[in-house]
Amino acid sequence: MRLPQVIALGGSLLRPEESENRKIWFGKLRQLAVHIEGNSRKLGIVVGGGLPAREGIDLAKNLVSDPDRLDEVGIAATRLNATIIQQILLDIGCNVAPEIPHTTESAGQYFLDYNIVVMGGTTPGHTTDAVAVSLARDCNASDCIIATNVSHIYDKDPRNFTDAKPYFEMTIDDLIKLCGTDRLAPGQSAVVDPIAVSIAAKNQINIAVLDGRDVDLIEHALDGKEFEGTLVRS
Ligand code: UTP
C-alpha cells in the first residue's frame, strides 16, 4: 500500500463569502479525489471549522470560562465541515471512510480499507493543522500540506503590513521563531498553529503552506511538483 498523503483544508475555504466560486471549488476538489484514487493513492483530508467554529465559540465565550470547553465547540464545527466534504465525495462514489474519525490513530486504521479519510478535530489545545501533522506522522508521511486562504507564510501579517514579505522556503526552526510555541486561544487564527509546527519539528515532517482556494495548487503539491506557496523544511 502506498503511504497516505495528508492535507489540512482550512475551514475558511468553506466560507459563505466564497460562495460564488463554491461550486467550482467543490467540483475541482472532487476531480482531485478522483485523480488520487485513479492513481491508487490514499489521501487524508483534515477539515477546519471556519465560520461555524468562530460563531459557536463566540456564542459560548461569555458563559464558558474553561478554554477546553470552547475548544470542544470548535471541534464540533470542524466535524460538521468534515462531514460536508465526506458526503460530497461519497456522492460521486469515492471510496471514503464512512465515519469521521475522532483520533488520528483510528484515521490511520481506516486507510486499510478506504482510499480517502476525512476528519476534523480531535482534542482541545490545538487546531486542525496539528491534527493534520499528527495524521501525517501516524501514516509515516514525510510531508503535510496546509491549504489555507493566504498564498504564503509572510514575515508579518500581510493584511496589516503592505511591506510584508512572503517566504518561498524556510526551515522549521525559522517558523518556530516566527510563530512561537504557545497554544492558540479557542478560535484564534494563525497562518500555522504553533502546536502543529512543534509536532512537525519533532517528527521531521515538512510542511507546505499554500492557497487552497486554488485546488490546482493542492494538486501540484500532492503530485510532488513545484508549487506556489511556502515549503517549510524539517
Ligand atoms: P480550526 O482548525 O478550524 O482552526 O479549529 P483554524 O486553523 O484557526 O481555522 P480554519 O482552519 O481557518 O478554520 C477551530 C477551533 O476548534 C478548536 C480550537 O478552538 C480551534 O481554534 N479545535 C480544533 C480543537 O480544540 N482541537 C482540534 O483538534 C481542532
Largest sheet: 7 strands, mixed
Distinct ligands: uridine 5'-triphosphate
Rg (CA only): 17 Å
What gross morphology would you assign? globular
What is the architecture at the second tier of CATH? 3-Layer(aba) Sandwich
Q: On the 0-100 scale, what is the average pLDDT?
A: 95
Spell out the helices and strands N to C: EHEHHHEHEEEEHHEHE
Topology, element by element:
Layout: E1 5-9, H1 19-38, E2 43-47, H2 50-61, H3 67-91, H4 104-110, E3 116-119, H5 128-138, E4 143-148, E5 153-154, E6 166-167, E7 169-171, H6 172-179, H7 194-202, E8 206-211, H8 215-222, E9 230-233
Parallel strand pairs: 1-2, 1-4, 2-3, 4-8, 7-9
Antiparallel strand pairs: 5-6, 8-9
Helix pairs in contact: 2-3, 4-5, 5-7, 6-7
The structure holds uridine 5'-triphosphate (UTP).
Uridine 5'-triphosphate binds at residues 10-12, 48-50, 53, 71, 74-75, 78, 121-129, 131, 186-189.
Question: How would you sum up this structure, described in words?
Answer:
The model has no long low-confidence stretch (mean pLDDT 95). The protein has helices at residues 19-38, 50-61, 67-91, 104-110, 128-138, 172-179, 194-202, 215-222, and strands at residues 5-9, 43-47, 116-119, 143-148, 153-154, 166-167, 169-171, 206-211, 230-233. The two termini are 25 Å apart. It is built from 8 helices and 9 strands. The protein has one domain (5-233): Acetylglutamate kinase-like (Carbamate kinase), CATH 3.40.1160. By secondary structure, it is of the alpha/beta class. Uridine 5'-triphosphate (UTP) binds at residues 10-12, 48-50, 53, 71, 74-75, 78, 121-129, 131, 186-189.
